[in-house]
Amino acid sequence: MSDESRPSPPQERAGTRTAVVIPAAGRGVRLGPGAPKALRALNGTPMLIHAVRAMAASRSVSLVVVVAPPEGAAEVKSLLDVHALPERTDFLVVPGGESRQESVRLGLDALPPDHDIVLVHDAARPLVPVDTVDAVIEAVRDGAPAVVPALPLADTVKEVEPAEVPGTPEPVVATPSRARLRAVQTPQGFDRATLVRAHETVTEDVTDDASMVERLGLTVVVVPGHEEAFKVTRPLDLVLAEAVLARRRLNDGF
Question: Cβ(44)–Cβ(246) under 8 Å?
Fold first, then answer.
């Protein structure tokens, strides 16, 4: 989509700036041996670069902080330097920690003081559309302390009693109503002060940053996600991501 045909981004209020933290220090063992997941090639370009471009596509985003593997920060910095990225956006690379939670905190610590809104985005979600990014930012600007994009579930979900031996049958405990369930994606958006307080307060390990805000007793709101914002974790996901990129090239005429 060209800049001329793209919807206008959220209007920026005086004193509000948006930064994105992309934790990319994990190895992604489910994709098999080799380079860290974020550096795997997708259509000939590292998946991380696709994710960075997806965030920088929003004209509301003024800074993207990539949290790299501690031993690979220089390599990630070189990747950002050699790939075409929007000139209106600043980019910063910092070394990550032992866990995703620690890496996000290190990314937060690196933010300049003049950014009031922070998005946290998975490097393994390289294809999120810019409209989804803008919708998250708009909801934070409208006053939500935490915002997550999410999709309704297509499958019926069963709660089970986990088996002690993996691969053995597991008894079903309950069947939750799909109407009340959502599959959460990223980028997740936050009022910066709220996210900083969550990382200072919540010490137990959690699966996403919105869960940390929930532990503070604050409301997390959901905005519509997008089917192309899926997480690339297994080899089949790479095939699907390549197909999405091929369709985009065809639709965009290049």
Answer: no
